[in-house]
Structure formats: structure tokens, C-alpha cells
């Protein structure tokens, strides 16, 4: 099984989430977190420029459907991995490759 993630702009977030949930209802997006350009002074109030959408333990067919959905849209970036990868480190690395980082979550 595989992990798939998609980096989408803030403007695309709701449409893409709805579309992905429609084309792969058995494998919904399980992780959605806001991201922004790398900034050592980032706070929880930093506005999102992008969103990181993720689904784990998906079959290759689902992974292919996400990739097909993203084809032709230069604003969508798809990352894939096997589930043996360190998902937290993998996500941070994916974002850093695009000059982005997770916006910190508010303290509980």
C-alpha cells in the first residue's frame, strides 16, 4: 500500500478536497494542514498559501486516480511513497523541496 499527498493552493483547497473525496470515496483525505513559505518566525496565525492533503494505505489504483486528476494542472503537486517511509519526515521534506513548511498548530 502507498501514501499519497497533494499540495494545493489555498484557493483550490475546497474544490480539490471535494473532487478527491468523490473519485476515491473509500480513501478520503485523512490529513489536511495549512502550509506557507519557510519562515523561522512563523506563528500559528500565519496565513496559508497552500494546503497539504494526504491519504494513507491507499491502493495503487487510488494513487493513480489522484495523479490523473492532477495532470494538466500545474498548480497541483503530487507526492507518493510506500508506507514504510517515515510519513512525518517525508511530508516535511516534500514541503521543503517546494520552499514551504507546515504552519504550527495552536497549542492545546
Q: How would you characterize this protein structure?
A:
The protein is of the alpha+beta class. It has one domain: Alpha-Beta Plaits (2-Layer Sandwich). It is built from three helices and five strands; from the N terminus they run E-H-E-E-H-E-H-E. It has a five-stranded antiparallel beta sheet with strand order 4-1-3-2-5, sandwiched between helices. The radius of gyration is 14 Å and the shape is globular. The N and C termini lie far apart (33 Å). 22% of the residues are buried. The mean pLDDT is 82.
Q: How would the blueprint of this fold be written?
A:
Blueprint: E1 2-9, H1 13-23, E2 31-37, E3 50-58, H2 60-70, E4 77-82, H3 87-96, E5 100-102
Antiparallel strand pairs: 1-3, 1-4, 2-3, 2-5
- Name the helicity range: 25-40%
User: Strand order across the biggest sheet?
Assistant: 4-1-3-2-5
Number of strands: 5
Shape: globular
Order of helices and strands, N to C?
A: EHEEHEHE
The top level CATH class name = Alpha Beta
Integer average pLDDT: 82
User: Based on the structure given, which CATH architecture is correct?
Assistant: 2-Layer Sandwich
Percent in strands: 25-35%
Largest beta-sheet characterization: 5 strands, antiparallel
C-alpha end-to-end distance = 33 Å
Question: How would you describe this structure in keywords?
Answer:
31% strand; 108 residues; five-stranded antiparallel sheet; alpha+beta; Alpha-Beta Plaits; 3 helices
Short description:
The protein has helices at 13-23, 60-70, 87-96, and strands spanning 2-9, 31-37, 50-58, 77-82, 100-102.
